[in-house]
Amino acid sequence: MLLVGPLVLYMAVFYALPVLAMLARSILDPHLTLQNFLRLAGDGVFFRVFGNTLLTAVIVTLGALLLGYPVALALSRMRGTAAAVTLVIVLLPFWTSVLVRSYAWMVLLGRHGLINEALRAAALIDAPLRMLNTAFAVYVAMIHILLPYMILPIASVLRQVDPALPRAAAGLGASPWGTFRQVVLPLSMPGVIAGTLLVFVLSLGFYITPALVGGPRDMMLSQLIAQQVDLLNWPYAACLSATLLAATLVLLLLCQSLPGVRGALRLSVR
Amino acid sequence: MNRPPLLLAAVLVLVFLALPILLIVVVSFSSAAYLTFPPPALGVRWYRAYFGSSGWLDATWLSLGVGAAVVVLATTLGTLAALGLGRLPRAARTAAGALILSPMIVPGIVVAIGVYYAYARYRLVGTPIGLVLAHTCLAVPFVVTSVAASLGNFDRRLEQAARSLGATPWGAFRQVTLPLIRSGVLVGALFAFITSFDELIVALFLSGSGAVTLPRRMWDDLRFAIDPTIAAVSTLTIALTAVLLGGAHLLRMRAARAPRG
Fold it and tell me: What is the pLDDT of residues A73-99, one digit of tens each?
């Protein structure tokens, strides 16, 4: 009690109470009311931004799953130096700040960026393609940033699969693809669900990347919240924050109850 | 599944992961006056621009200072809490754990505007203190999980033995417990530093004009032009992070090899 007390008190005063006080503005402004939330239901801007946020999260999650699974599978079969090198390539971006990685994509996708210059040098295009400040740029950069969150839980679950199982399937006449589809893939599902959930939930709250590489029409929920705070529209910002937070928590609690997912989530945090 | 196609797919994705970061490093050593690729020649003019700018250096010193203060606060509070969590009754442990780990889950923007809303009333916006107070909350989960992991292999009877041999609680902690969990504490401290040093969303709201951190300064610059100075700054922060993570890895390896009580 004496040991945990100081931290709990600290976090209550400097983090939990401030966030709760801010959220309370959604139902206490101007007095105890649900009016602010009811207004969201008829708000076109909110629905457009919320829809775009969900769409972005779905596309980014699918992209990360498609690109991340092969790496996780390869990583789980590697040993020694190859495994160490792969892990470094996965972890270095993981710990490089989101700001730096978003900047890298600005350099890559810009009008005079690497990709446009390369395409022009190869005489594939005459005029530079418009890639920066589009939804495409947001998807690519977010997939790049969130890939490690997909790879690590899947790889950690795959690593625990008994190698005798796929071997037995092959010995019984299953094709390599059949072995993968009927043995390896089902056994990796806890990792897949954990990775999918993590990437989806983290996507919902993205702010820096869409603000830097997206266009004004690709606004996400976090950007709308920041914009409303700049306008000092606290009740509206608080409603949006409560919605974002509720979506995050409900998804996490829902998926934590699935078998095996809890363990895979915990492994990935370390 | 065939091995060569799998390996090829994995290698392509790894290139996709690594390339943008390598690109930043190459661009930072460009001699060109503007952003162009490939660089016409190599040089260190953007590093000179960085080290010659008091604005960039002030922001760097502030980030290092805030990071150092966060390390002290988060490591102290987090280590104590990790030691105490195991001794709490189950319900209290779940509740305290949820509060302590929640900054890993709560969206950054919600934390940022929450602390901004409250700190503004106490004139903490635009001060380094405000940043330290908020960054500590974001850094603490990394300390608690890291120390708790190293406590997982710790035999509590060692501390009880020390107590029964006449050690004070503090003496038993300092001479028995701390040496055994030292690597977990140090790894947590490194993660705490990186968390604060790289943090941007809270800084966007709390920095004001009086406490501009390095990520905040980069953000402000990015809004106007993609100047290669930012590539030089980015490369320096990537190098610093890589060195710190390498250190954390060595600490973990050493801890894994050390004999256990």
Answer: 999 988 888 888 999 899 888 888 999
- Asked if the structure places residue B154 within a domain, the reply is no
Contact B244, B193 (CB under 8 A): yes
Give yes or no for B105 touching A (CB within 8 A).
yes
Give percent of chain B with pLDDT exceeding 70. 94
B81 Cβ contact list (under 8 Å, min separation 6) = A3, A4, A6, A7, A8, B96, B100, B140, B144
Q: Determine, yes or no, domain membership for B39.
A: no
Which helix (DSSP H) or strand (DSSP E) does residue B34 occupy? none
How far is A212 from B80, CA to CA, in rounded Å? 39
Q: How close is the nearest chain A Cα to the Cα of B15, in Å?
A: 9
Rounded to 5 degrees, what angle do the CA atoms A150, B237, B33 make? Answer: 110
pTM: 0.91
SS3 state of residue A78: coil
Domain of residue B117: give its range: 60-147+188-257
Q: Which amino acid is at A194?
A: A
Complex prediction ipTM: 0.91
B182: tokens are 């030292």
| Closest chain A C-alpha to B53 CA, distance in angstroms | 20
Which pLDDT value is given to residue A205? 95
Q: Which of B135, B72, B197, B30 is nearest to A96 (CA)?
A: B197
Domain-located, residue B33:
no
Q: Does B219 touch chain A (CB under 8 A)?
A: yes
Q: Give the per-residue pLDDT at A1.
A: 66
Q: Which pLDDT does position A49 carry in this prediction?
A: 95
Residues 117-146 (B) with a CB less than 8 A from some CB of A? 117-119, 133-134, 136-137, 140, 144-145
Q: Rounded CA gap, B68 and B139, in Å? A: 12
A139: closest CA among A55, A68, A201? A55
CATH of A59-269, one of 3.10.50.40, 1.10.3720.10, 1.10.645.10, 3.40.50.1970: 1.10.3720.10
Task: Tell me how many domains chain B contains.
Answer: 1
The two three-digit tokens of residue A126, written as one number: 């005459």
Q: Does B88 touch chain A (CB under 8 A)?
A: yes
- A116 lies within 8 A of chain B by CB: no
Out of A100, A117, A222, the one facing B234 most closely (by C-beta) is A100
Contact B103, B149 (CB under 8 A): no
- Give me the residues of A, 217-236, that contact B with CB < 8 A: 222, 225-226, 229, 234
Q: What is the mean pLDDT of residues B173-185?
A: 87
Partner-chain residue, chosen from B100, B110, B218, that has the shortest CB–CB distance to A19:
B110
Does any CB of chain B come closer than 8 Å to the CB of residue A178?
Answer: no
Whether residue A66 lies within 8 A of chain B, CB to CB, comes out as no
B110/A205 Cβ within 8 A = yes
Interatomic CA distance for residues A113 and A193, integer angstroms:
36
Domain presence at residue B32: no
- Three-state secondary-structure class, residue B30: strand
Contact, A53 vs A220, CB < 8 A? yes
